[in-house]
Amino acid sequence: MKFTKMHGLGNSYIYVDMFKESLQEEQLPSLAQEVANPYTGIGSDGLILVCPSEVAPVKMRVFNNDGSEAKNCGNGLRCVAKFSYEKGYVEDTTFMIETLGGLVEATVHLKEEQVVSVTVDMGLPVLEREQIPMLGNPGEQVINELFEMNNEKYQLTAVSMGNPHAIMFVDDIVNAPVSSLGPMIEKDVRFPEWVNVEFVEVVNNEELNFRVWERGSGITQACGTGACAAVVASILNGYLEKNKEIVVHLLGGDLTIVWKDDGHVWMTGAAETICTGDYIVKL
Ligand SMILES: N[C@H](CCC[C@H](N)C(=O)O)C(=O)O
Fold it and tell me: What is the topology classification, in CATH, of domain 129-263?
């Protein structure tokens, strides 16, 4: 199976061109686990398929390194946009990409005909509790809500970018309890589809420091949908303002994100190709 390894701020995936390769649906979860394994596979945060679509030039499917399929992936979208443009699957520099969470618009930015960064309209964040999804009174938003766990009290804000995110604000990002609290919140029963867990330190009125424990992948260098959710949560909690470009500092680098008055969240950041190769699929 031919593959391309790409990353967005160190959040790397193995990309497979489904215009040329064919895979069995039932093998996808195990294939994602296989290729993501740094010892017996290629090594990545998961698997992303670039597929034909009936409603857009391309469709993105995302699998975490535990084999679970996700409805959206911000860093993945930027790499899929780069991949699709450079493969000639799209003519213009602005085009639509189908995801399981809906259609998104991407614009590639070129340097000597190579895509160096991408801007994506990530659409409208979803804030209603039952659509995150999160257990509790339907119709309410989850903003700085008390979240008790293991006899400790925390405050969480919940946002869906097509995939679920629980955001906790901290005073010191370097010592955020990512690897201790992350997995506990990820699989807490109050999140019936599990959840991505973000820790956010507000630096000033235009910068955030950010760490993430991703649903299905654990700690990653960056999470694009998570960074978008973090900006939305920061605005909902009064730390930041709409219509202002926010720089989110992730372990792997920076994303520029703005939540506009029309409700859409825009994300701009790098997308890079690491290598191509031929993977021997285990029987
Ligand atoms: N772990 C996520 C999918 C990958 C999202 C992340 N890598 C991004 O860049 O948005 C989930 O299960 O919802």
Answer: Diaminopimelate Epimerase; Chain A, domain 1 (3.10.310)
